[in-house]
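Ticket #4471: complex job returned nothing on first submit. Input attached below:
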Amino acid sequence: MFASLVGFLGDFDLAEEAAQEAFAVAAERWPRDGIPANPGAWLTVTARNWAIDRIRRERTLAEKARQLEVPEATVDELDDTAIDDERLELIFTCCHPALALEAQVALTLRALGGLTTEEIGRAFLISEQTMKRRLSRAKAKIKATGIPFAVPAEHRLPDRLDAVLAVVYLIYNEGYSGRIDLAGEAIRLGRVLAALMPDEPEVHGLLALMQIHHARREARFSGEELVLLEDQDRSLWDLQEIATGREALERAIALRGRGQYVLQAAIASLQADDGIDWNEVAALYAQLAQITRSPVVDLNRAVAVAQTGDPERALEIVEELELSDYQYLHSTRGAPLRRLGRTDEAREAFERALALARSERERRFLERRIAEL
Amino acid sequence: MQYAMLIYAEPGYTDALSEDEGKAVFADYMALGEDPRARGGGQLQPIETATTVRVQEGQTLTTDGPFADTKEVFVGYYVFDADNLDEAIELAARIPAARLGGAIEVRPLVER
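Support reply: We reran it on our side without changes. The output follows.
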C-alpha cells in the first residue's frame, strides 16, 4: 500500500504521513463500524484522499500568498521549514529555463526580492506598464505549461541551480540603476540562497564573489574616472564586507567547491590582498578557462600573467584569442606592449580599443593611457 | 497535461549515421512511441511530399511544397501525457532529432 502511495503521490514523506493517517482513522473506526470487506483497498483509498486534500489546501495557500504579493520575509525570519521549502521552490520556479531570461530576472526580483513592479521597471529602464506585462506573461506561461512549483529532482539540480545562480549574478551586475541598488538586492538573494542551500558550494562561492567585489565599489571610480585595481584607494574598501565574503569563500572551499563562482571568488579574494599573488591568480584563471571555455577569461589570465612581470607570455596568450571586436582585447595588448617598449604598437592597440569603447568613462581612461605613452 | 512535441530537423539528418547508429535511433523512436505516456505520434514523409492548402473566398488553393520553406523542417510529432513541463522536457530530450542537430518544440495542448 505504501509503495502505491509513493508512486501515486511522488512524495515519500507525504505518502508516509498519509499512511499513518489512514491507520489512525482505521484504528478509530473499525472497532466501531466493523472491518471493511477489503481492508487493504479501504486503507489505500483513505490515505489517497487525505493526501489529495492536503495538497489542495497547501496549493491554495501558496497560490493565495503569491496573488497577494506579500513582501518576502528576510533571512532573519526564516525559522519555519515549511516556509523555507516554499521559498526554495519559488526560486527554482522563477528561474525556470523555459522562461525568457528577462522574465526570470523580473520574477525573481518580484517574488523573492520583494521589489515593486515599478521599482523593477525603473531599475531596467522600462515602464511599469511594460514590466507588469512581462511579469503577467511569465506567470501565465508557468501556469499554462505546467512549470512545477518544486525543487528539481537530484539529477536535474546541478543545471537548474546553475540557472538560478546565473540570474542572481546577472542582477548583481546591473549594479545601481534607477535609484535601485540591484547589487545589494542580489547579495541579499545570495544570502537567502546560502541559508536555504547551505551544502551547495557554488552558492557560497557566488555570495563570496559578490560581497568581495561589492566591498571595493567606492574605490572603483574617482569622480567619473575608472580606477584600476592597482591604483585603487584601499581605505575606501569595506573591509568588513571583504571579511564576510572571505568567510563565504571558506565555506565553499570546505564543501570542496571548484566551480566557476568559487574560482572567481578566490581570484577576487586574492586581489584584495596587500601583495597580490598574481601567479596564483593566473593559475586560477587557467582553471576557470577550462570550465567556462571563455576567451574573456583567457584575456583576464593574460592580464594576470602581465602583472607577474612576463609581458611576452601575456602577449602570446592574447594573440591566440579570437576576439578582434572586443575592446578589452586591444587594451590588454596595450599595456604589455608598452612595457616591452613597443610604443607604436601600444598606441595602435589603445587606439583600436578607443574606437570600440562604449562609455565616456572608458574613452577617457583609454585616452589617458595613450597620453601616457 | 498533454504536451505536443513538434520535431524539427534538417532533411536527411540521419543520413550520416552508421547502420548500427541508425538502428539505435530507430529503436529510440519506437520506445518513445511505446511509452505508456504516449498518446499519439507519427513520422512525416519527406518534404517533397508536402502540399499546402488554403481556402480563400470559398476557393481551395493548393500549392506544391511545405508551409515554411526553411532549413529545418517539421519531420514528425508525439503527444505525451506528463505531470509537468519538466517531465515533458525530459521526454523531448530523448527524441533522437534533438541530439542530431534538430529541435523539439514542446507545447501544451488546449484541454478539452
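The longest strand of chain B covers residues 73-81. Closing as resolved unless it happens again.
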